[in-house]
Amino acid sequence: MNPSVLIVEDSLLDRHFFKTCLAQDFNLNFASNGLEGLQMLRTFKPDLIITDVMMPECDGLHFVNQLRKEYPQNDVPIIAVTGSTDQAITEALLAMGVLGLAHKPLMPKPFCQQMKNLVNLRQQIRQMAKEEKVQPVLRRVPEDDFIKDFDTVVQDYIPVQEVSLGEIARKLNVSIPTLLRKVKQHYGCSPMKLISDAKLEQAHRLLQTEQLSVKDAAFETGFVSTSYFIKAYKKKYGKTPGTLLIRN
């Protein structure tokens, strides 16, 4: 039986593209927006979710955010498809635990192969876990050791601009679903959210003690966009970083 895919996409043209390149290898289920996608997830669990970002009624950002709230233990990989190059959107999606972003226009054969590889890898990991043969590939990390190692990784990633769940999971020697589950259970949020908060807290300290400019503080803490840094800082602290410099 072919793996099932939930595709959340409002464009008829893009739906046709997905049918053309994926229908032979996957059972496709379509939702025209995020609300329909959430309703469909109440009745079945797909092997993969592909969602557009820009949609009417309920866009991809809201869909993924609600999905994480309603189904916190859901380990189905999510791929977001977008024609936007907005770094803020990319960082927001990754912070919610989206496994990857595919930028339009998509190439049929490479895209299809990537989706097949992703589903196959997930199925292999789940099968190995069932057979209790996960030990040679993914060691079972004691909870206390995992949290200690994860906290170290968070600090290591503060100055890094490009952060990926796959790289974090490899550093901790666990699968991506295990990483998401453990972090959610212990901290109540995603790994990307914790790293983003750590970046902002470090930037806050730098602005207070090192008297760096807003641009330099953003750069030192791995923000590729000063405008996004200011927006994220204001959301966390209720004020812009510039007001801190004025007081100092």
TrEMBL record:
Domain HTH araC/xylS-type span(s) in chain numbering: 148-247
Family matches, as SUPFAM superfamilies: CheY-like (SSF52172), Homeodomain-like (SSF46689)
Species the sequence originates in: Cnuella takakiae
Residue positions where 4-aspartylphosphate is found in the record: D52
Gene3D superfamilies for the chain: 3.40.50.2300, Homeodomain-like (1.10.10.60)
Pfam families for this protein: HTH_18 (PF12833), Response_reg (PF00072)
Gene Ontology molecular-function annotations: DNA-binding transcription factor activity; sequence-specific DNA binding
Keyword match Oxidoreductase: no
Residue span(s) of domain Response regulatory: 4-119
GO aspect biological process, one term: phosphorelay signal transduction system
Protein name listed in UniProt: AraC-type DNA-binding protein
Keywords: DNA-binding, Phosphoprotein, Transcription, Transcription regulation
